[in-house]
Design goal:
By secondary structure, the protein is α+β, with helices and mostly antiparallel strands. The protein has helices at residues 11-15, 21-37, 87-94, 123-137, 152-162, 227-238; strands spanning 2-8, 40-45, 53-58, 61-66, 76-83, 108-112, 144-148, 166-172, 190-197, 200-206, 220-224, 242-248, 255-260, 266-271.
């Protein structure tokens, strides 16, 4: 069963007093012990209620109330979510809470989460089950992965420069367990590369010669609010490549173009919504 360990607020947490490095290390050790035991699901601290709001309904009408809130002992400063076999096990983990926290004067409240099986059968719970099933099938993240024929390092460095990104990973075959199975002229080729584009990830790799296929039927689509910047990016990606739809205004965008760059990758650049 899932249990939430709720760390109640106190005067310091409501003042926004930050934990010391020693306290952070103690909490990290506690979390790591739960991770190693396979019981931890999630956990984090909450900022003071002075940064939050309450939405209170009266007769169906919402009213927004700004923090801070007075009843400190009833407020939360953070939580830890665990998956255990019994409340006794949850209590045992709660008793291991770092003694350093608030000089050993902390109140923890443990609450069991409802599971789908706790509710009566009916269309209402079936809707919740369908939503849960949809959520479970949705990926945590989605990225574009590009395939190259030996020029991944050059291409990804080029894209990082054009798109103002940062190369965060560039792993050659020579640095992997596959090095002994890789031809000598392919050792410095890239088995995995990543560019961070403001939290978005563009991936790439050099496919072994026998496995490389030219990209067809897919494009990397970029959207910009600023038409001028979009045009700059389009022109930069176009260098050495070819445009099969020059950048221009369309009925759906103030700027749009399609091109194949010098590495054989297809791009679509959208910019700005039309005025009408």
């Amino acid at each position: 069963m899932k249990v939430m360990i709720m760390r109640k607020a106190d005067t310091d947490t409501e003042k926004g007093v930050m934990p010391s490095d020693d306290m952070l290390q103690a909490m990290a050790d506690y979390n790591e012990e739960m991770l190693n035991a396979g019981v931890m699901i999630d956990g984090t601290g909450l900022k003071p209620t002075s940064t939050g709001v309450r939405v209170q309904f009266k007769s169906g009408e919402p009213m927004v109330i700004d923090g801070p809130f007075a009843e400190t002992k009833e407020l939360l400063a953070g939580f830890t979510m665990i998956n255990v076999t019994s409340m006794d096990e949850a209590i045992a983990w709660a008793k291991k809470w770092p003694r350093m926290d608030s000089d050993g004067n902390v109140t923890l409240e443990l609450r069991i989460l409802y599971e789908m099986e706790d509710f009566i059968d009916g269309e209402g719970i079936e809707k919740h089950k369908r939503s849960a099933a949809r959520l479970a099938r949705q990926p945590t993240s989605m990225s574009t992965h590009l395939s190259f024929n030996g020029n991944c390092r050059e291409a990804m460095s080029f894209y990082a420069d054009v798109l103002s990104g940062e190369v965060t990973f560039m792993l050659p075959y020579a640095d992997t367990p596959m090095k002994d199975e890789t031809d000598a002229d392919w050792q410095d080729k890239i088995i995995h590369a990543e560019i961070n584009l403001g939290g978005r990830v563009l991936m790439g790799a050099d496919a072994p010669p026998a496995m490389y296929e030219k990209p067809t039927g897919t494009s990397v689509q970029l959207y910009y609010d600023d038409v001028a910047i979009a045009k700059e990016v389009f022109d930069a990606l176009l260098a050495g490549g070819s445009a099969y739809m020059p950048f221009a205004e369309t009925f759906w965008a103030k700027g749009f173009g399609m091109l194949t760059d010098k590495y054989g990758i297809h791009w679509m650049i959208n910019a700005g919504s039309p005025d009408a």
